[in-house]
Amino acid sequence: MRTCYRLTFLSICLLLLLAAFTGHAQSSVLASGRWLKVGITQSGIYQITPSWLSTLGQKASQMSVYGHEIGELPQANSTARPIDLQAIPFLKQGDAILFWGEKLPNHYSDTTFYFIRLDDPAPKAIAEISAAAGSVAQTVDYGLSRFHYEPETYNLLQSGREWLGDGFFGNVNRTIQYPLADYKTGISSVLTGRLASSSIAPGTFSFSIPGNSINPLIFPATTGGRYDQKAFVQHFSARIFPEIKDQNWTWNLAYSNTTGSGYIDYIDLEYPRGQQRQTPARQCH
Asked: For an engineered disulfide with 262, which of 25, 119, 145, 168 has Cβ 3.0 to 4.6 Å away?
């Protein structure tokens, strides 16, 4: 009798799992059509042309771009995630297409992949919108550009996925410089980052930015125990006006601590970039 109950219970569990799977299952866009998988290692505008396709022995009738915009899938099974590829907006220019490719963060790969369909019966290109009658045209001569610095050098646990970058061992002052010859003056930038301190004494990161002020980051001490927390991390974000000299912007980041070390996790600068210069679209490889 117990065996019968167990079999019945297992059958019910299997039916519930099958129902849950069926509720989420669907036909993938990859199930039909001709496809190319292309990888990028930098964010930017990419171009797919007939001449490039011919080098691969391919020819397209109507192209479209697919991918997703979340990067690495979340670890928690309860977190929402896409169950299929999504259409990526693209601009059609003659027989070529252009699209924005985003290098998404991923702990296990330095490449983000996009899928190009070569025979899409209903490609969804970006449509041009006509100006409304009587509207005044506005010229935008800049766009937002980004410098992102995130080296993966140190792993304090020698395990797991958390890696840190440049180390500040003791009392260290470092100079950070950006080439900003194309900066659109009069418009602010956004400087963000994440810093870490690993020490049995409190540590402090200080910012020295000409013409701007960011409050220092003060970190508590760790206990030093073998299995205790190895470091503390803090984020910073500030809107700034860089003072550019000789087409470069220079500032200093200092760490103060006599017994431990500080680290850069990442530093990100988003700035207004003038559009006087035309940057060619990248070819996929």
From this structure: 168
